Amino acid sequence: MLSIGDLSRRTGVKVPTIRYYEQMGLLAAAERSEGNQRRYERHDLERLAFIRHARDLGLDISAIRELIALGQHPHRPCGDVDRIARDHLVSVREKIGKLKKLEQELERIVSHCDGDHAIEDCYVIRSLSDHGLCDGEH
Amino acid sequence: MLSIGDLSRRTGVKVPTIRYYEQMGLLAAAERSEGNQRRYERHDLERLAFIRHARDLGLDISAIRELIALGQHPHRPCGDVDRIARDHLVSVREKIGKLKKLEQELERIVSHCDGDHAIEDCYVIRSLSDHGLCDGEH
DNA sequence: TCCAAACCTATAGTCTCTGGAGATATCTAA
DNA sequence: TTAGATATCTCCAGAGACTATAGGTTTGGA
Fold it and tell me: How many residue contacts between A and B have a Cβ separation below 8 Å?
């Protein structure tokens, strides 16, 4: 039996975060000691590692909740699981695309500035003031 | 003189967001009509366009506040302005790097799954359960 | 047995908005 | 001029995923 601190050290998930996951329904309510402290077993450790890993991959709480629910039915086909992962991949790619546009625009803006002239003439400030100086839309 | 709704329509910034920017000190407290409604002029429109543009580029409120303060001193050199923009570019690039790692990992995971077998055998679920199946760290 | 460390609950704060309730102001048409 | 529709006002709560604090209780080791 592990205390919440033990679980925290083994998974690298902070104690308040573990309690938060319980509250959000990702972790089942833990057993309690006589003094009302949470006690965990191996399967809680595995569940928490699953959650942590999914979060690291950027999946949100509701997607993880859905994956866990699907995991309760091991004999069903995994089409929904696959869909969640693929949808997430799509959204990651969209974010990358947007950030790359920002990167280009910022590169262009700062490339005109040597940091050494007056603010009234600064290309950074002028670009922000006048969208017309931009390439493309954002 | 523009009402808050006029300003909203002209900039594409929602009315509550305009009030929020005022509260955050990005927009000066507007003049008021006799009936206490906000009235704006051209320079408020320009200021709001500046804020909107900076937000679209991903700058946060405190960075924008700083840029606006710097803009009040048009004769000073623009080194700080340049630094804010360059720092932001660095953080955008870091985000892109992280997302690309996620993209690779997700690609690898979903590429093993045809969505057509049992959940207990699903590579997506197995990958999430067992970090050992991953390439690299995250 | 005693004390420090870990734990408990409840609550508030982070950040950038967004939406709602309930009251007041403004504008348009009759 | 007046009614009614639309816009605005302030204040407050919620989103998402935690994180931190306060004040109190339990646990584990010397």
Answer: 170
Listed as ranges, residues in chain A with pLDDT below 70 are 135-138
Total structural domains in chain B?
2
Span A47-80, pLDDT tens digits: 999 999 999 999 999 999 999 999 999 999 999 9
- For residue A73, CA distances in Å to A48, A52, A80, A115, B51 come to 19, 21, 12, 60, 50
- Shortest-distance nucleotide from A51 CA to C1': D17
CB-to-strand C under 7 Å, chain A 81-110: none
Q: Name the nearest CA neighbour of A17 among A61, A65, A58, A63.
A: A61
* The model's pTM: 0.88
Q: What is the DSSP letter of A64?
A: H
Average pLDDT, chain B: 93
Domain presence at residue A8: yes
Contact B106 A89 (CB under 8 A): yes
Q: CA–CA separation, B85 vs A49, rounded Å?
A: 38
What's the confidence (pLDDT) of residue B117? 85
Domain ranges, residue B119: 77-138
C1' (C8) to CA (A94) span, angstroms = 43
* Rounded Cα gap, residues B29 and B23, in angstroms: 8
ipTM of this complex prediction, to 2 decimal places: 0.85
